[in-house]
Amino acid sequence: MSTATAPTTHRWTREEYHDLAEAGFLGEDDPVELIEGAIIRMSPQNTPHAVAIRLVHEVLRRVFPEDRYLVHDQLPLALSPDSEPEPDVSVIEGHPRDFLDDHPSSAALVVEVADASLQFDRTRKRPLYARHDLPEYWIVNLVDRQLEVHWGPTGESYTETTVHTADETVSLRDQSVAVSDLLP
């Protein structure tokens, strides 16, 4: 008599994820991310989402000096062997050639622009980013037209969270940023 085992879910590694792409199972333009071993299909970007990414990029480019920081749009972060998210915008300390061997594994700031992904960004991305000690995480919440700022990672969460409406400003690196400048 054979012994049956219960069905299990396969958790993908970054290496397997890259192998799938190289074999043509995942296209370069497929809206997918590897989050804690799961390949997650993300929603296609609507126009306000795309505009918000451009606005956030422009603001962060003014705040973070180009000689020390890269501002990336939707490029991978190698957070762990089973997670390679692609934040809408991330600020990486260093220069492009610093990452010839692998994607960056940390960021000074990660930003997700959220409409359809709002709940996912709060419940899956926030704990992921906190667990990997990313010091500051922003959600540009298009649904409620506000900015959610999370900082002070500890365990699965952040110790501080503030929510700012479109008529407010936030301080970033001793500079004032109008929330309205981030919203389409």
Can you tell me about this structure?
By secondary structure, this protein is an alpha+beta fold. It has one domain: tt1808, chain A (Alpha-Beta Complex). Helix content is 22%, strand content 30%. The protein contains three helices and ten strands, in the order αββαβββαβββββ. It has helices at 14-22, 47-63, 118-131; strands spanning 32-35, 38-41, 69-73, 89-93, 109-114, 136-141, 146-154, 157-165, 169-172, 175-178. The strands form three sheets. A six-stranded mixed sheet has the order 3-4-5-6-7-8, sandwiched between helices. Strands 1-2 form a two-stranded antiparallel sheet. Strands 9-10 form a two-stranded antiparallel sheet. Strand 5 (109-114), helix 3 and strand 6 (136-141) form a beta-alpha-beta unit. The longest helix is centred in the N-terminal third of the chain and has 17 residues, at 47-63.
Output the strand order for the largest sheet. Answer: 3-4-5-6-7-8
| Number of helical elements | 3
**Alpha carbon gyration radius:** 17 Å
- What class do helices, strands and sheet pairing give? alpha+beta
Q: What is the domain tally?
A: 1
Question: Unreliable runs, pLDDT <50, ≥5 residues?
Answer: none
CATH class descriptor? Alpha Beta
N-to-C span: 64 Å
Q: What's the β-strand tally?
A: 10
Average of pLDDT = 94
Tell me the CATH topology: tt1808, chain A
- How much beta, percentage-wise? 25-35%
Fraction of residues in helices? Answer: 10-25%
Order of helices and strands: HEEHEEEHEEEEE
Shape: globular
